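A reminder before we start the practical. When you read a complex entry, don't treat the lines as separate problems. The point of joint prediction is that each chain is placed relative to the others, so the output describes one connected object in space. Small molecules and nucleic acid strands, if listed, are placed in the same frame. In the example below there are two entries. Take a minute to note the order of the lines before looking further.
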Amino acid sequence: MRIERRPHRPLSLIVLSPIIAIAAALAVSGGLIAIAGANPFVAYGLILRGAFGSILGFTEMLTRATPLILTGLAAAVAFRAKVWNIGGEGQFYIGAIAVAAFASGSWIAGWPPVLVIPMAMAAGAIAGMAMLLVPLGLRLKFGVDEVVTSLLLNFVALLFVSMMIEGPLRDPLAFGWPSSVPVVDAATLPKLIERTRVHIGLIVAIGLAFAIYFIQARTVFGLQSRAAGLNAPAARFAGVPWVRTLVIVACMSGGLAGLAGAIEVMGVRGYVASDLSPGYGYSGIIVAMLANLHPIGVIAAALFAAIMFVGSDSMSRALGIPSYIADVTVALSLLTMLVSLFFTQYRIVR
Amino acid sequence: MDVIEIFASAGLWGAVLRIATPLIFGTLGALLCERSGVLNLGIEGIMTFGAMIGWLTVYSGGDLWTGIMAAAFFGALFGLLHAVLTVPLGLSQHVTGLGITLFASSLSYYIFRLSVPLASSPPTITPFQPIFIPGLSDLPFFGPALFSQTAPTYLGIALALGLAYVIFRTPLGLAIRMTGENPHGAEAQGVNPIAVRIGAVMAGSALMGVGGAFLTLSAFNSFFPTMVQGRGWVCIALVVFASWRPGRALLGALLFAFFDAFQLRLQNVIGAIPYQIFLMFPYLLSIAALVVMARRARVPQALMQPYRRGER
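Here is the predicted structure of the whole assembly.
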């Protein structure tokens, strides 16, 4: 028995692979739910009802999907060019704190939202870009693996945010845990549906997914970034401006993760606290891999993760199963997706 | 208290060894994996799981050493998962390792929450006590500084020396190094690179699990989520700093722990600087170490390259 490369990759398998992966992950998690003493089918039913059973649950799921689409795109864009940006979590927080610093002063309070919202989003994106250009610079200049540096910088970013919200940006009126001063009303994103939390950030995220799809499929830069990822030496030989391509990719990736943080502050929280992200940066990596790095697929994968996260909260209340089961399932689906992608390229022969 | 007094305090040097211990185990584990050619980014999650399962074993009535063994066993199990995906299947070691980390840490939170209901303060166990060595532990200064550690700390130091011996002086070590440098060459010499890699990753991951267990069974006495705090990633950086040599890994972990213990005490001396600046120091130091060593270090030549029989 050995493993052999398939002569061609059947399209049906590529399309089916995420479905098989998610089914396998759900099966294993089902076992974990059964060990905890609950019926997995009842639990999954409750998860679906939690995410789709009410307007509140459904809009909450969309609210949760918004940052996941953006961090998922951030990872997908970078991974396609083999820029291993694992720093999405740090970039998310730096983008968030940039907005809190930029859009909280009294000087900006009188400005119209049409001006403030794009400027605040840009501030978050630029902060995220800067955060990723450090590890990329270290890779290009010194040959340091950006996986480890971008991971380590996540902790630095979190400490920096903590320093800001306990220091210069601290809200003197807030009780309990330290939080930043709130952003001005002009920087608050309009709601999509009244009396829910879902906001126009969702439209921005979906729009960006389509924009990135267009860039990757139809522009010279898209081709260059894919070439840089598939075979760097060949791409350079063919005249692809390798360094410039990687820098632009890093700007897009860091910018998207920073924007995710900015939009979360402007659309949902209104301020920055150290519990702003339940790991959106890390979940983004899973979302990107589940989507096989396809920008439109990222939307679907982010919805899957959001259904699991939001649905398991209400399932947990009903059955007493820890809601961490959602994190377990989503993380497992990354591993099963890797295996199922492998079998689109290879097969076992006797 | 000023800076000189910090250096002269036995507490600092005692803390260095204590802080270094999980890093010693983690770095040696990662080093063993990488010497055979496999990067194991599952380390952060494996340490978290080790911390949880070690604690849970003792909390539910087990012996402290049973807790250590449980951490090693489950570490090896996650290592097996990483190895199966990256060695025979040859999947991306970066992405698989991150997947292992996310899976292992969320699974440990799930199991912890399932076994211990939500409480205002996490339940505690009786951790390892310092070993009293007659003669040495009574020494003024050196006693509390060097000879008042718990058993796993001494085990970690011995392990570094033992691993150095195995890697550089035994046929097994030669097989591991050959597999990490040139698996085709190793195969030609009658070594099975697939088996060596799976074995090395499992053994290395067991060490990572023990490093995590030290946190809950010796350094602290309870488990809480996110307690590993990037120590796994620091270990990955320390392997590069150590140039893939166990002796230097020990030295690197001690040096790193020294800076960490020093910054904790410096915080009390210099009050004007926000404490977060000091806490950033270990992570920035790891990045600096990577930058200094990246070009100089002798990377195992086949690191991160999957091996397939008959394919080049």
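Discuss with your neighbour: The CA atoms of residues 41 and 95 of chain B lie 8 Å apart. What might explain this?
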